[in-house]
Amino acid sequence: MIDLSHNDSDALYVGVDIGGTKVIVQIVDRNGRVVSRHKTTTSSDLNSIAEIVNECVSDSKVNKDKIAGYGFGVPAVTDIDKGIVIEAPALQWHSLNFVEQMQALLMKTVTVENDVNCAALGERWLGSAKSADDFVFIAIGTGVGAAIVTGGKLFYGNRFMAGEIGYLLSEEDWQENKRYTFKNFGALEEKISGRALSSHRIRPEMIFKQYKENNGEGFDIFTQYLKTLSITIANLSSLLNPQKIILGGGVSEALSEVIDHLRDQVAKMSPVPVIIECSTLGENAGAYGAAAFLINKLDAQ
After folding, report:
1. pLDDT at residue 90 greater than cutoff 70
2. Whether pLDDT at 8 is above 80
3. Are 102 and 177 in the same domain?
């Protein structure tokens, strides 16, 4: 996935993960050693994003001449060859020439990749998937998405849209007069995203508390949540036969406490064996992966 034979051992790489609620800026060397890390509120304005990145680099006190480039992970369908963000509903971007515009602002090499793909690259480089050539990374945050790695390489599909599992449907979701588009959240996202958990009458913290106590409305809500997530994981396992399915994103911290339950449920739902784990890099996986993608691009030049 990532070749570490690049001849500039002193170079530094800035990985930027732009999420629905936050931006993480991380400066790393070729070995993934973190030189600096900053987290702040997200923005959809390119000038503001560039300012955030520049401020983080300045605050880190690193020599800017050592920075080889900036890798961005964005919650979007991205054309990685042309550097274009095709659709980013959470940021309200459409057909945005991201790389060209951001390079003009930062004056260095810029790359852009889907944020979930970046998280998978991060886990493949330094996290839960270091030993796996075939795995699926499921990100559960503001939305829901997946990255598919097969034979050690990301699978993109026909138009860079592979892994958009937030739009998976069950029979009950289909309505003749409803059309799902990238401008709206998908049916699965409306059930298992962090946004979905926050839409209930009681707070997510109380939902988790009541589930652990085996009582109240929260128990019923999270029981259904886990059932839907288990079905999703089982279907992905049956379809793709990955070695691992890794759960990441903001909600995955809560899922670490019920990971054994998920494993038991999935084992009943599909005869295809799979290892289910939570991300070891947590919220920083995307920033690591954005830097990894940048390094790969620079090495290929």
Report:
1. yes
2. no
3. no
Looking at the structure, do residues 194 and 265 belong to the same domain, yes or no? yes
Total-model pTM: 0.93
Q: Note down the domain range covering 41.
A: 12-120+283-300
- pLDDT at residue 49 in the model: 97
Residues 205, 144 share a domain: yes
**Would residue 125 count as lying in a domain?**
no
For 41, list phi and psi in degrees, rounded to 5.
Answer: -70, 145
Confidence of residue 252 (pLDDT cuts 50, 70, 90): confident
Number of domains in the chain: 2
